[in-house]
Amino acid sequence: MARAHTTDVESKARLYWEMKTGAETGWDYSSRWMIGPDGSNRGDLSDTRARSIVPVDLNAYLQRNARLLAGFAARVYPDQLEVARSLDRQAEKIADAMDELLWCPEDGVWYDYDLQNRKQRRHFTPSNLAPLWTESFVSGTCEERVTAAVQYLIRQDLSRFDGGVPTTYVKSGEQWDLPNCWPPLEHILVSGLEKTGLPQAKELAFQIAEKRVRGAYVNFRSKQHMFEKYDSSSVCKIGSGGEYDVQVGFGWSNGVVLDFLDMYGDKLRAPEVREEKEEEEENVEGKRAEEKIEKGGKGKETVSDTDSDISFEDRES
């Protein structure tokens, strides 16, 4: 790749730094880190610009950690409360910056920020909702932000995806993109929705969790393994794409399913598993999912993610 896309030592070094940064995000790789020539999230690995993107989830985690550390400091150093106060101030600064730079009032959600083009990247990804889990709100804005963010997620009509929540709406061939869905992202999304306490949000959280448990169960029955990632287009499919074969095991998938069973054990029901050949199931479910994605929902509002591979309109809530 370096030979094809670089002409000198400086551009080669820049490409390597971007690739290393993209890998360090944990999302290796994704259109989330791509900035194409037109400023969109379309391109290939050579368009990775992770160093130029301010991520919603990273800042949410840092803000939450600052709050946690402040609480620890107050307990461990009760005679040196300035340490805790300093950490609280840091948490407030991060929350203020997130609200100013990442919050989109038009869409009612947080978006990654493109430093190169000085604009928000208005594309769907579950990480947009990470602040619901970390509760990273500016004082006095919690109720407004929570209500708007939940409505944003409802407008995405995730019921269109039979296998789970897609990582993005871009089918790039990379593993952190459509059609793959990753259990840790779904767990953060579910936990954040539950924290809101809103009935609509809690019902949506259950639907996401139910789909993950069902998909893990069906694929375990047919393939005798748990997997690191699954396919959002079908409950019968596992993830694919990227730089390596899908991994079996798998720690975070096991943990997520166990926690969902603990959270919703009184509501979940074992799915009926048909005994047809796996390939036939996958073909039927896959075609249905593709048709559903192509047709989309019907409504009046248009989703802001205009660059997505999926063209659809929001359903009214």
Question: What would you note in describing this structure?
Answer:
The chain has helices spanning 2-5, 9-24, 56-76, 81-101, 130-134, 142-155, 183-196, 199-223, 251-264, 278-295; strands at 53-54, 103-104, 109-110, 113-114, 119-120, 180-181, 230-231. Helix 3 runs antiparallel to helix 4 (81-101), helix 7 (183-196) packs antiparallel against helix 8 and helix 8 crosses helix 9 (251-264). The protein is mainly alpha-helical. The model is unreliable at 297-317 (pLDDT under 50). The chain folds into three domains: 1-51, no CATH class; 55-147, no CATH class; 158-295, no CATH class. The longest helix is centred in the middle third of the chain and has 25 residues, at 199-223. The radius of gyration is 20 Å and the shape is globular. 48% of the residues lie in helices and 4% in strands. It has a three-stranded antiparallel β-sheet.
